[in-house]
Amino acid sequence: MTGYLLLFGLGVPYEWRRSQLREKKLIERFSHYVAKSVLDKILLSDFAHSLEPQLREITVLVADMENYTATTSALSLPEAAALTKAFLRVLTHPVLECDGTLDKYTGDGLVAFWGAPLPCDDRADRAIDAAKGMLAMIEAFNAERVQQGQKALRVRIGIESGTALVGDLGTDFRSTYTAVGDCINFASRLQEAARKLPTDIVIGPYTQTLLKRHPTTSIGHISLRGVTQPIEVFRVSLKEDDQ
Fold it and tell me: Distances in Å between the alpha carbon of 70 and those of 73, 94, 105, 198?
């Protein structure tokens, strides 16, 4: 009997400490990538294996400042740094507001996705919500710049969905929660294509089929780098914007 009590007395605190360490690890890792509301859901769901790489269906958003080099070339280093940080704040806020996962910053832009670490049935619509939020915040941001005699900035956004390997794909030297897959590259190329298209948000064909709340309009077929056949791309319908 004494032995059982000893084992119980040692085992329970040990398991409790292990549980606390796992929770602390999740908090430390995901606090850099998701909003607090999403982090709370992860902990409540007991997502003990949230960091382990796994295949997930996600929707990816890639956003970038147009003409970044030209815009910052005439600025001092502190001014360029301040502009970059302010621009990234404008892009980041809508991602977190729409429960997205911030994958990485790309200098003058970012990559975000929906569908991991938590499943998200309306991931495509949430990505569009975030993209529209970015445009609204950029508009306000530009209004201040114009008042100060500065040029307005344009953000280009590409959105596509697909299967990706998601999880802690870092090394022993640095841990990083990220997504790897064709849909990430595709979204990036859609963002690049927006340079010559009459819209700031370019939606890929697969994402278009997943949308439930956002009507879209075809922009036509375009050629993308690395894609053999022209693909049809879409924009958020102007009728929705007018409502």
Answer: 5, 26, 19, 21
